[in-house]
Amino acid sequence: MSLFRDINTESKIRLTVTSFAMGRLSDDSIMLGLKRAFQINSIIEGFSPIAGSSVSLRLEEQKQSYIKTLGDNSPDIVEKLTSASALELRSKVPVYADTPESFLVRLNNSNLFLLTEDKTSREDRYYKSIKEYVEALVEEFVRLPFVKREKIYLHKNCDLLEEALKNGYSVYISHSNGYKYLMRIHSITTDALSNYNYCIGITSDNKSGKDRIYALRLSRITNVVIRKNIPGALTSREKKLTDREIDRVGVQFVSDRTNIIVVRFNDQGIKAFNTILHLRPKVRSISEDGMTYTFECTDLQALFYFTRIGPDCEILKPSHLRKRFKSWYKRGSEIYQ
């Protein structure tokens, strides 16, 4: 591909994408606090190696598959099959009919090299220009679920975390809250509904100094440093305890302390409880009349869940949580005075 055809002297390229793609990029930017240049460069770096739009890479995989099946003694057959696959792979890259929107973005040095000089990536054979290839990448990327997009945007930190997990190293993690955590990693995973990515591990409590299970949103991690000199592998017992805690309260709540929470429902509240399943805490016991439930969950989970049921449930215990709900409803009612 020609460097000067699509990229100006400031290493900027003008992309034209659908309004759907622009909307998704804008939503992701707000959700994760990302600048547009970071988004596009991350998509090229983190998504192009696995994207269907990267026809040359997918074709090379297909070719190696043919060689493995047919052997090295059938080069002509392999070439014919590969040529046919090239046409099929390129035809599968969709063209979207939508109102186009354009923007200018600067490419970083590694992506400049990848798009203009790296001979392992030969997308110039299948696209008219760099611009057309990058636009295809973006359109394919924005149609992925958010949880996959998040991981690709943040692939550099994610790769370091996965390397530490694979090799049994500890990591120093800098968090957007200003804290730093020395963590032994259990897993990089999502919550039950695959809304967000989390790094789960064991770290020392900042106050007590005791080990505790902690979950950090991947998007809140600002820096990762691998500490190869500090063993980071969890014992079999620690893995089982962490698995059990995740099953008990959910990935997003393992960092918080649980409380015994008692809630009284009316008939409408019982109906709502039976139908609202997202983030629903596990029941420990139910009163004889079937209207008072006892749960063990974190305050945060209780707030997320029971505010959705509203006035059809009442927090009886603990007192601090009851006061919190009372204050929340009072502030809300004052808006409508």
Structural write-up:
Helix 4 packs antiparallel against helix 5 (75-91). The chain has a 5-stranded antiparallel β-sheet, with helices on both faces. Helices cover 46% and strands 24% of the residues. It has 3 domains: 3-53 and 93-144; 154-235, Roll (SH3 type barrels), CATH 2.30.30; 258-335, Alpha-Beta Plaits (2-Layer Sandwich), CATH 3.30.70. The longest helix is centred in the first third of the chain and has 17 residues, at 75-91. It has helices at 3-6, 19-32, 36-47, 55-70, 75-91, 109-116, 130-141, 146-153, 155-167, 236-249, 267-275, 299-309, 319-335; strands spanning 12-18, 100-106, 169-175, 180-190, 197-204, 211-217, 221-231, 258-265, 283-286, 292-298, 313-317. It has 13 helices and 11 strands. The protein has 337 residues and is α+β, with helices and mostly antiparallel strands.
What does the secondary structure layout of this molecule look like, with pairings?
Layout: H1 3-6, E1 12-18, H2 19-32, H3 36-47, H4 55-70, H5 75-91, E2 100-106, H6 109-116, H7 130-141, H8 146-153, H9 155-167, E3 169-175, E4 180-190, E5 197-204, E6 211-217, E7 221-231, H10 236-249, E8 258-265, H11 267-275, E9 283-286, E10 292-298, H12 299-309, E11 313-317, H13 319-335
Helix pairs in contact: 3-7, 4-5
